Amino acid sequence: MHVTIPYVVGAALFGLGVYGVVRRRNAILVLMAVELMLNAVNLILVTADVSLRSALRGVPGEAWATPNAQPGSGGVFALFVIVLAAAEVGVGLAIVLQYYRMRKAVAIDEVRLDADAERVDG
Q1: Does residue 81 form part of some domain?
Q2: What is the pLDDT of residue 106?
Q3: Global pTM?
Q4: Under 8 Å CB-to-CB from 72, ≥6 apart: which residues?
Q5: pLDDT given for residue 63 in this prediction
Q6: How far apart are CA 76 and CA 84, in angstroms?
Q7: Is residue 83 part of a domain?
């Protein structure tokens, strides 16, 4: 398999995620678009790790500035991104649900950010 295919797929996924963040009005769909962008980054991290390791095979460690690099470091970074995505979903969904309980809507363009917005107690 050519190494450019995962890079192109990752770039396409990231582009779709950016389009979803820019164009969507529903907060839950925006969170899904952010997840799509994070998964594109995971794909690119793992692909870069595999492709760079195969390209640098046989090169002495001193020649590329990380002589003690562990194999699979792209996967480790991808794992950190997955943990970050899980935390983002938890916090983001809690904020969206609380806003829905207060305002009965999740449209982003209707969110008031000023301090004197009317408060609905229920």
Answers
A1: yes
A2: 79
A3: 0.73
A4: 49
A5: 47
A6: 13
A7: yes
Per-residue pLDDT of the chain (122 residues; tens, 9 = 90+): 688 999 999 999 999 999 999 998 888 899 999 999 999 999 998 888 888 776 666 655 554 455 455 566 777 888 888 898 899 889 988 988 888 888 777 787 777 776 555 555 54
Asked whether 10 and 47 are in contact (CB, 8 A), the reply is yes
The answer to whether residue 85 is domain-embedded is yes
Write the CATH number for 96: 1.10.287.3510
Cα separation, 53 vs 47, whole angstroms = 10
> Is residue 25 in a domain?
yes
Beta strand ranges found along the chain (DSSP E): none
CA distance 99 to 63: 54
User: Tokens 């002589």 label which residue?
Assistant: 67
Residue 81 structure tokens: 């991104």
State the residue range of the domain holding 46: 4-57+71-110
Number of domains the chain contains: 1
Written as one letter, the residue type at 3 is V
Nearest-angstrom CA–CA distance, 66 and 54: 15
What does the DSSP 8-state code read for residue 114?
S
